[in-house]
Every structure is written in C-alpha cells, then in structure tokens.
Amino acid sequence: MNGAGAESTEIWDARMTLGRAYRILMRQWRWAFEIGAGNRKRGMPPVRFFDFWALYREEVRLAAAYPSTD
Q1: Which residue has the higher pLDDT, 2 or 45?
Q2: How many CA atoms lie within 13 A of 55 on its CB side?
C-alpha cells in the first residue's frame, strides 16, 4: 500500500516550493488513477472496501512493530 501512496522524496528538498511540491503530488496521484483505470479496462476489479480495510489494519499492526526512526 505504501509504495503507490508514498510521496516523491524530492518534495522534501529545502529548495522545493510549496506550489511545485503540490504539482508533483497531483501528477503522482494522476498517474496512480490512470494505472487503476487501465487495470479496470483490462478486467481487474477494484479492491473491495472490506478487503482494503483488512489490508490497512494489517499494515497498522505491522508498522507498530517497526523500530523507531527518531
């Protein structure tokens, strides 16, 4: 889940403007939605809400066990 949902690391550059960062994020999300639309056209059904929710809960459970990055 985190792979497609993670932001491009370049937006954290101190020289990055807020407007440019938002443009990068919107482009990234447009690509994700285009990939999803292409997958649906090829017959792949979207993930059902409760399946997504179960995956999300598992991610939260696993993330709690990760070592601290502070």
Answers
A1: 45
A2: 8
Position 70 in a domain? no
CA distance 25 to 5: 10
How many structural domains are present in the chain?
Answer: 1
A 10 A CB-CB count for 53 gives: 11
Range of the domain at 31: 2-64
Dihedral angle computed from the Cα positions of residues 4, 50, 66 and 35, in that order, rounded to the nearest 10 degrees = -10
Note the pLDDT tens digit of each residue in 21-70.
Answer: 999 999 999 999 999 999 999 999 999 999 999 999 999 999 899 888 87
Asked if residue 69 is part of any domain, the answer here is: no
